[in-house]
């Protein structure tokens, strides 16, 4: 049987387990993030997508990662406070994790295998975005340079519009 997004659990920044099974039937946008990156202002666009589409079912999830030039040096609590204070982020933020290499979280191993980017299945940088369909199987990858608002058409499609 094929693995779906809904089989993964990840530690949330608040220390609880985040169970993707609770999002069954909803499209999910997962983004590896960092607080000290040139793309960090994309948090504002991600929050705008969250506000615009949350009532229609979209879930936006931030996955902080310190693997790219150590641009996410803070603790989980510092990351959450930074995102709330500077960008008004209200969507879930996971605990810092790795997205590439032998320490990569199984969620990101799965996301990478389902998609290919410019570097094969490796994630090239912070703010790589993954849009997972309602069935938890189909994944689309977007580069760090793709602004969140450019995903609206695909989000509408994933929502069934």
Spans where pLDDT lies below 50 across 5 or more residues:
none
Gyration radius (Cα, Å) is: 14 Å
Estimate the strand proportion: 15-25%
CATH 4th-level superfamily: Glutaredoxin
- According to CATH, the fold-level topology is Glutaredoxin
- Helix count, DSSP H or I runs of 4 or more residues: 4
Q: Strands of the largest sheet, in order across it? A: 4-3-5-6
Termini gap: 29 Å
Task: Tell me about the largest β-sheet.
Answer: 4 strands, mixed
Task: Specify the CATH class.
Answer: Alpha Beta
Note the main attributes of this structure:
161 residues, alpha+beta, Glutaredoxin, two-stranded antiparallel ribbon, 6 strands, globular
Structure, briefly:
With 161 residues, this protein is an alpha+beta fold.
Describe this structure in words.
The chain is of the alpha+beta class. It has a single domain (28-159), classed as Glutaredoxin, CATH 3.40.30.10. It is built from four helices and six strands. It has helices spanning 42-53, 76-87, 106-114, 152-159, and strands at 9-11, 17-19, 28-33, 59-64, 129-132, 139-142. The protein has a four-stranded mixed sheet, covered by helices on one side. A two-stranded antiparallel sheet has the order 1-2.
Topology record:
Blueprint: E1 9-11, E2 17-19, E3 28-33, H1 42-53, E4 59-64, H2 76-87, H3 106-114, E5 129-132, E6 139-142, H4 152-159
Parallel strand pairs: 3-4
Antiparallel strand pairs: 1-2, 3-5, 5-6
């Amino acid at each position: 049987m094929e693995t779906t997004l809904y089989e993964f659990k990840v530690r949330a920044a608040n220390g609880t387990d985040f169970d993707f099974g609770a999002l069954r039937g909803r499209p999910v946008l997962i983004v590896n993030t960092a607080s000290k990156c040139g793309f960090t202002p994309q948090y504002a666009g991600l929050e705008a997508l969250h506000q615009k589409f949350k009532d229609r079912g979209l879930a936006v999830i931030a996955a902080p990662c310190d693997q790219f030039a150590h641009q996410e040096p803070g603790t989980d609590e510092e990351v959450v406070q930074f995102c709330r204070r500077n960008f008004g982020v209200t969507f879930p933020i996971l605990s810092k994790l790795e997205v590439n290499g032998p320490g990569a979280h199984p969620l990101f191993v799965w996301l990478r295998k389902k998609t290919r980017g410019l570097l094969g299945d490796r994630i090239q940088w912070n703010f790589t975005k993954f849009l997972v369909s309602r069935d938890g199987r189909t994944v689309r990858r977007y580069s760090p340079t793709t602004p969140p608002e450019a995903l609206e058409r695909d989000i509408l499609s994933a929502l069934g519009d």
